[in-house]
Amino acid sequence: MSDLPSFSKTSSKDELENGTLFAPKFDADGLIPAVTTDATSGELLMHAWMNEEALARTIESGEAWYWSRSRNELWHKGATSGQIQTVIEIRTDCDQDTVWLKVEPQGNGGCCHVGYRSCFYRVSPVGQSGGPAQLITDQEKL
Question: 16, 50, 80, 112: least surrounded by Cβ within 10 Å?
Answer without folding.
Answer: 80
